[in-house]
Amino acid sequence: MTRKVFVAGHRGMVGSAISRLLAKDKNIELITAAHSELDLTSQKDVHEFFAEHTIDDVYLAAAKVGGIHANNTYPADFIYQNLLIETNVIGAAHAVGVQKLLFLGSSCIYPRSVEQPMRESALLTGVLEATNEPYAIAKIAGIKLCESFNRQFERDYRSVMPTNLYGPGDNYHPENSHVIPALLRRFHEAKNLEAPEVVVWGSGKPRREFLFVEDMASACIHVMSLERNVYEANTQGMCSHINVGYGSDVTIGELAFAIAKTVKYSGSIIFDSSRPDGTMRKLMSSERLFSMGWSPSTDLEEGLVIAYEDFLNSPLREV
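That's the GDP-L-fucose synthase sequence above. Prediction below.
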């Protein structure tokens, strides 16, 4: 029997990866809507869209996202727009009787100072990182919306919290991108200019976890495919969200050398220790998800090759 699945945010990095994977299933009819067709911040438009379409499952991958600079500059936009998106989509799904929904959050929901690796139980146990607190609060609200509809109306709304993602569809803007796309661009340009060295901010010692976006998509579909009793058994007594990570981390220094190898840059790499390192480690515990039968299939070396190919075909390469 064909299931009609709505992917909100299907043009974003994660949403597009989910859509590509779902499209391979002949028993799924994919429903999508570009921003020009549906404004997710409009309650009226979203409720009308759900009323017009028969939808079985929802993947809520839409969000307003950005780096530290954007979060610091536009905090009101980040909390307001993300609250609108998740409230409208989750509320409309419930209103028309959609029983299954998956909400995608962010690892920034966890406190600034938290035991590593970060476990699901760490939610709401401490102060958030100030630079992205509004965004984090919006994502926490999304988790609690799902929990609350489940408690009050017996819905089956689930939440997953991804670690740092990279891969096809990433943002390679020279100022607003995250660490992997930013370094891919920097080493690529250094190679073309035959620059003798590339400077990387910080000591290179902080550790970060990275997950290939196609693996994130497979995790989302795996979580949605779990029987309800299995999902609930693994979140019993915990918050109802599940971490999605690679399971191990690398230093920024190791990452820089791996990217230089991928790009075939042969110059020197200089670490500028006068620049701040930030948090020394951010690793998520994905033991719960691993115990439910999912594991990532793309290692960093393979993923960087694919990400670099995507960068070479990206329109932002010329920005």
